[in-house]
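User: structure tokens for this one?
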Amino acid sequence: MTSLYTIEPLVPEDRRHVLEELATELVDGAGRLAGRVHPILQESLGDLVRAMNCYYSNLIEGHDTHPVDINRALSDDYSTDITKRNLQLEARAHIDVQRMIDRGEAPAPVVSIDFIQWVHREFCCRLPDELLWVENPDTRERQQVVPGALRMSHVRVGRHIAPEPDELPAFLDRFVTAYGGGMGRLRRIIAVPAAHHRLLWIHPFLDGNGRVARLFSYALLRELNVGSSLWSVARGLARQQQAYKGSLQAADEPRRGDLDGRGNLTLAGLEEFSSFFLTCCIDQVAFMGSLFEPQELLGRMEIWAAEEVRLKRLPKGSWPLLRETVVVGEFARGRATELTAYEERQARTVLSKLMSRGLLVSSTDRGPVRLGFPVDVVERWFPRLYPGLS
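Assistant:
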């Protein structure tokens, strides 16, 4: 029986207040970002950010699913190539689970065994059978991944030997006790990266632990009112994969000496990973804030719309309708005449063209319209959101 001491320390000490300063900066930046975007526009941007989060989370797993293929999967347009189709289904599964988190449809609180198993179950039950098998690298035995079920076999991840299967409930209980409460909000934000690492250290599932840990962290930041559907740390982690995986592995190491905390694992390594993770969060909040700054966004969109009109791919009068959705979030279809200064029939034609291209969308056939984000405009409206999309 492995002692629960082996997972200690669970929470950074942060004696120099480095992590406290980073967490404070993150809270301030996330608050500014949330106040920058109209609430209705935030809902539309949520769809874009979920697809982005999925793309980068897939990239961390070594699955390079093109944004165009992700977009097609969201429209139930799957490839006939089985490998590409499976990756599309995997992407769709990730987006569906994150959407449920964003809509408050997941178990609460986030720091619970129920939530952790729910994420794994909801994600894996949407996967094709081909992605639900793993092979033991030593024995070559194939094992099936059961959605939501804790693993029943022994696992080694690099140099780390994860807890025995029958010990998982006890380690998860200790995890919930450590991160589930008893700390102020700022201390809980500081502890998010540590929870991310320690969940991976426990390695509760046969496969899918990395994705579960990232969705867990995303949901926990939301629960702490610092995360939102406007940003995701996954982009930052994927763009620094080597540093991300290296700092995760460094935090697996044993204590480095008498000055390195009092637990079994290195406190310094845990605090270094926490600093890296929180810095990634801050960078992504700042990056998304620069993309969503209203005047800058309107400027990029207006230049693009003028080019589309000049090339006769959009009718004149398109820009006032697009602009209105950024400024006020949505508008009633009947206002198209007022906004374009066209006769009703001509205004309806402009509106229909924008909707046919997915630039304006609506939840109902006659309801108000809001901004859409078809993948072919993403690079122009939101440069550098994805690598090499142009």
